[in-house]
């Protein structure tokens, strides 16, 4: 397998921040593979700030694609045909010209192994009809292209125009006989920046091209807030949060603009699963407040597969993971298992995907109507 980017030397690798050295990491929507890092697109709110990688503007490879795929499929969290995979979603854009060959190499390698896992590929870059042809050559992996579109026109915050992603979404959705799915990944929605009635109406029109749309807010973490302050950018909020921020009134306005839509979702996994005609792989069905905008047929599909696991079953699955051996099942409801004893979040995501059921950490409770979201901007916030 050919690698077009030069590989980092072992000295350069050793100088990377520790989190950046972990090329496989479990995040909420899937096991994420990131052996290429660096991006010149300069979105001010980029998650690279939190990995100590902001200054890395040129994509670099930490290992070959073959080595990276091996590391992924042999990872303790990887389950063939089950674990959703995310490709280059943390440190680069998968369709930058220098990254594109790596993206296809990984997809084709996974596909050649006969794996039927979901693979989520998030991009804001230009895509072309020849990309559709190549993606259509994949027979096994279930690919979803998620087009990051915000409509933000402040060039200090988002120098690379959202119109490119909009155009890519249209091109890739129009391809005849395509096997992959397309999602309008409408984010980050920020009050006062990209939530005017015109912004919402434009997003609604764009959503008609996609198989599904998901809307979400901004990850406003400490490192990102610091960058905004140092660079004199207008700060969207006066505090930071560990979850994404979607204020209540903004959500209401989105729902009312999309009243005529039957493919709008609050959760990425719901949009991806719907687009492939499958029940939500994150098991959100047990949280009814998330499902009130879902098409009835999809609601039925998720309902028919929804199964509340027993504590014994949860422990059985956890036993396969060394980093889950302190797990305690605190409570099980119709919607989620509440657990304690996990040092970090990754094993919890593994359990969630293995069980197809929500697994929450007792230290981070979800509030009514704010599942997975920060309290900022909600009237009844209690913490
Ligand atoms: S029914 Fe609920 S869990 Fe299933 S896709 Fe719809 S919103 Fe998601």
TrEMBL record:
Biased composition annotated in UniProt, kind: Basic and acidic residues: 373-383
InterPro entries: Aldolase_TIM, MJ0683-like
Protein's recorded name: Radical SAM protein
Gene3D superfamilies xref list: Aldolase class I (3.20.20.70)
Region (Disordered): 364-383
Entry-linked PANTHER family: RADICAL SAM CORE DOMAIN-CONTAINING PROTEIN, SLR0285 PROTEIN
Source organism superkingdom: Bacteria
Keywords for this protein: Iron, Iron-sulfur, Metal-binding
